Amino acid sequence: MMRRREWLKGFGITGLVLALGMTLAGAAFAPAEAQERVTIFAAASLKNALDSVNAEWKKESGKETTASYAASSALAKQIEQGAPADIFVSADLAWMDYLAEKKLIKSDSRFNLLGNRIVLVSAETDAQPVEIKPGLDLAGLLGDERLAMGAVESVPAGKYGKAALEKLGIWPTVAKKLAGAESVRAALLLVSRGEAPYGIVYKTDATADPGVKVVGTFPEDSHPPIIYPIAITAESKNPDSAAYLEYVKSPRAAALFEAQGFIVLE
Asked: Domain 2-115+227-264 adopts which CATH fold?
């Protein structure tokens, strides 16, 4: 409990609310019965799919969950600072490895859950298809406007996008035209609202937002494989954590993930 007490002391009530949102703040001070909820920290791109999985988990088991969605980097840092999470689902291997190196996950619980693709989206319903290949004049398509992406230094979707643009030789022409966002869903929103003409997001994000149109799909060999690992945190004492982890491997959960465009890996 020392790590969690230090986190609460360091952030205070205001910091707790800002970092994790009102739902987690409520969970931190809820009655003992509510504390038994499985608390999941998951990549922002998982929101629609995981909300559906959690609803089915409750229907089938009677158990409650609390989910917090944000960039994998932000969630990993919060867990490092002692945030009370039972389950972590990252949008890339790097942030799970980060916690593993610090012994903040139960290594024997870790497995690769899902795969995804990255796509180029536009808010224009009549936008023309774009063949994503070496030499693509993406800068020309952008004109004086910007390309929405997750922050390339930390957000997994941004890192995958940058890797693809570099592999295709496009990066130097657009590196100064980025609208970096704190998460892939924030990048998606920039396009959906018309604040950026194009954006690079996960295929599943495009599926979840009717306000955008997929105009091109990045070749799979243009970036590292997109893998979502999941694990129980080292400090989780919730007896339902292991059962929840098994449920996300179930055929029912797999169908819900696939309905949102994810690739089920196990």
From this structure: D-Maltodextrin-Binding Protein; domain 2 (3.40.190)
Which range has the worst mean pLDDT, 25-39, 137-151, 241-255? 25-39
| Domain 118-222 CATH class label | alpha beta
User: Alpha-carbon distance 208 to 250, whole Å?
Assistant: 22
Please state the domain extents for the chain: 2-115+227-264, 118-222
8 Å CB contact between 238 and 86? yes
Q: Which amino acid belongs to residue 57?
A: W
Angle between helices 93-101 and 156-167 (to 10 degrees): 130
The two tokens of residue 46 are 């998982």
Helix axes 93-101, 72-80, angle to 10 degrees: 10
Per-residue three-class SS string for the chain: CHHHHHHHHHHHHHHHHHHHHHHHHHHHCCCHHHHCCEEEEEEHHHHHHHHHHHHHHHHHHCCCEEEEEECHHHHHHHHHCCCCCCEEECCCHHHHHHHHHCCCECHHHCEEEEECCEEEEECCCCCCCCCCCCCCCHHHHHCCCCEEEECCCCCHHHHHHHHHHHHCCCHHHHCCCEEEECCHHHHHHHHHCCCCCEEEEEHHHHHHCCCCEEEEECCHHHCCCCEEEEEEECCCCCCCHHHHHHHCCCHHHHHHHHHCCCEECC
Q: How do residues 158-212 score in pLDDT, each as one tens digit?
A: 999 999 999 999 999 999 999 999 999 999 999 999 999 999 999 999 988 889 9
For the chain, first and last CA: distance in Å?
33
